[in-house]
Amino acid sequence: MSFFQVYPVRLVGYSVLALLLGYALKGDELRSFFINSHQPLELNTPSSADVLIIGGSHAGLSAALTLTRHQIDVLILDSNAPRNKWKTPTHALPTWENRNPDDLRRASWKELQKTGFASFANTHITTITKTGANESMFIARDSLGREWSGRKLLIAAGVEFVFPLIKGYEENFPDRILHCLFTRGLEYKGSRSAGLLAMGLAGSPHHSAMLVEDAQKFASTVTVYTNGNLQLGVEITAALLARGEENTAVDNRKIIQLLREPAGDSITIVFDDGGTATESFLVHQPDTRVNLEIVSQLGLETNERNDIVTRMPFYQTNVAGVFAAGDCASPFKMIPNAIFQGSNAGAGIARELPRTITHNHIDRLADKGTTWYSQLQRQFTL
Ligand SMILES: Cc1cc2nc3c(=O)[nH]c(=O)nc-3n(C[C@H](O)[C@H](O)[C@H](O)COP(=O)(O)OP(=O)(O)OC[C@H]3O[C@@H](n4cnc5c(N)ncnc54)[C@H](O)[C@@H]3O)c2cc1C
């Protein structure tokens, strides 16, 4: 008996499933679904646009959407390495609770594609140069020698973590070392104990006392670890007392290793005196830094947190024509803020690009076989 005689029902089932999947995803989406989970495909990417956006994540996509609302061409250059590479479920973003951050980017890109004003290149930009003074142009290049040019530039390239040089730190991040108790904290409620690593830029007495109070919302006890910094220990104790905190211990021993406990969802700190302490989770905000190459090539000003300095409300940098938005330009490194800043930067850039400069057609949609009226008709069934 042949395969087809034995499995006819199963074959029909598989075919129907394949057809349904194809219908649901269609064309390019079907291809990008199989090729890459979040990156859009590069289709006829132009070599120039009104605006170059370095970084196609939350900030860059939000800026692009605002710009396309002014019929401004945007070219998004993205290397597909967002800061949340662990893809932990999203929290604290209205309508997106517990969902995958990649799906948010994909949904955003889908909207942009429909505008007809956005293009995309999957690439890592290594050099950016500015030519001219007032009527400037920016040229972005990648390591393959490909080049793209634009009148304005938005840096939405996020930041990278600079993890402390403690053995075992990276292996415990981000599920046993929590970096933000608003985006991840509630999930750990009712924990036995928490430890706060008071180190790096976020290890100041004021910041530490604040984080102790945050951690107390999810764990019965909180201990502060200063990793051998006795002076900081004294200052944190004073800051805690000033807030009326009398029951928080401060441990100044030097940490040599962090061990991931396989059972019991906990983490053990090993000290240089041979002692250990086990906590349900640790709280620590690692330092971050922007892409230093791009920053130095353009001469962008940065601050003590290694973020790009910008001017409110449109996030203009110290270099004319260059804007920055999202994690790379803010201490508030969360998706809602990246979206907000991207949108404002988009509006600021759009205001610097009147039609006298872009010479864009007034009815670009007509060029693409549709008019604003037919679009409206479809939207509101006029
Ligand atoms: C573990 C973890 C969990 C988090 N959970 C939440 C949460 O639940 N809710 C929340 O609001 N926030 C959360 N965040 C924070 C959130 O991920 C960031 O605030 C947000 O991603 C910032 O968006 P962005 O667009 O500024 O930067 P990113 O998302 O980091 O994107 C930057 C983009 O720029 C690209 N890029 C960088 N350099 C170049 C280059 N040279 N050339 C081309 N492309 C480049 C990268 O590939 C990347 O796609 C979390 C962060 C982490 C680490």
TrEMBL record:
In its keyword annotation, does this UniProt entry include Ubl conjugation?
A: no
Is this entry keyworded Nucleotidyltransferase? no
Keywords, sorted A to Z: Flavoprotein, Oxidoreductase
- Which Pfam families does the entry link to? Pyr_redox_2 (PF07992)
Top-rank taxon of the source lineage equals Eukaryota
Which InterPro entries does the protein's record reference?
A: FAD/NAD-bd_sf, FAD/NAD-binding_dom, Ferredoxin-NADP_redctase_2
- One BP term from GO: cellular response to toxic substance
User: What are this entry's molecular-function GO terms?
Assistant: oxidoreductase activity
Instruction: Give start and end of each FAD/NAD(P)-binding domain.
Output: 50-342
User: Which family does this protein fall into?
Assistant: Belongs to the class-II pyridine nucleotide-disulfide oxidoreductase family.
Q: What's the name of the protein?
A: FAD/NAD(P)-binding domain-containing protein
The organism encoding this protein is Xylaria arbuscula
